[in-house]
From TrEMBL:
This is dITP/XTP pyrophosphatase. It comes from Hydrogenimonas thermophila. It comes from the Bacteria. SUPFAM superfamilies: ITPase-like. InterPro entries: dITP/XTP_pyrophosphatase, ITPase-like_fam, RdgB/HAM1.
Length: 198
């Protein structure tokens, strides 16, 4: 049984592999090469399922477990932006830096130096005759002056609840303990174990 990760995001691959130290988890690109998947769902869960199903169908094997992650940051004071559009906030094909700059700009335009925000992760698992989605959240705030270069995406502007440093400044171990992704993957682990052993 192979465990395949249906993501092209290197930051996610690193975080997910570090949470599954005992399992060999293979990014889909190593098997199928690069692939663009259209994420046209209206929720994190729908998009996670689209990614996992697309890769499962392309692999065309009953001997694989496919895991995907659809995630993003939500800022209630900005009409819940960017939410499911986090990866394309500054336009289709925008990179992490451009997306972060757009969120910083929009905070400044609204006169918000800091405001509550949260990350959501939906983790989907697809295997032969099996389909699951789990969620995890991390609450905190975003600030209009990013700090640090750890993590990825919006991390330099996000301060988790209970801390005074951004995820760009904090030790990666702290993100591993607290993150939306870790929480959803903790729920996914027993399901993956069950699927491996059936
Ligand atoms: O600072 C961050 N720390 C995180 O922990 C985090 N989790 C998600 N995000 C952002 O949300 C979007 C995901 O979009 P997304 O789920 O479509 O992923 P993606 O397009 O990058 O890769 P893929 O998995 O779809 O291949 C991207 O803009 C990410 O930067 C994060 N930013
Ligand atoms: Mg994506």
């Amino acid at each position: 049984m192979q465990i395949i990760l249906a993501t092209s995001n290197k930051g996610k691959v690193k975080e997910i592999q570090s949470l599954f130290k005992d399992d060999h988890i293979i990014p889909f690109k190593d098997i199928l090469g690069p692939l663009e998947i259209e994420e046209n769902g209206s929720t994190f869960a729908e998009n996670a399922l689209i990614k996992a199903k697309t890769i499962f169908n392309k692999l065309n094997s009953n001997d694989v477990i496919v895991i995907s992650d659809d995630s993003g940051i939500t800022v209630p004071a900005l009409n819940n932006e960017p939410g499911i559009y986090s990866a394309r906030y500054a336009g289709i094909g925008a990179n992490d830096k451009q997306n972060l700059n757009k969120l910083v700009e929009n905070l400044k335009k609204s006169g918000l130096k800091e405001t509550p925000a949260y990350y959501t992760a939906a983790i989907a698992i697809i295997a032969s005759e099996a389909k699951y989605v789990m969620h995890g959240w991390m609450y905190g705030k975003v600030i209009d002056e990013p700090r640090g270069d750890g993590g990825f995406g919006y991390d330099p502007m996000f301060i988790p609840e209970g801390f005074d440093k951004t995820l760009g400044e904090l030790d990666p171990e702290i993100k591993r303990e607290l993150s939306h992704r870790s929480k959803a993957l903790t729920l996914a682990k027993p399901i993956i174990e069950m699927l491996k052993n059936r």
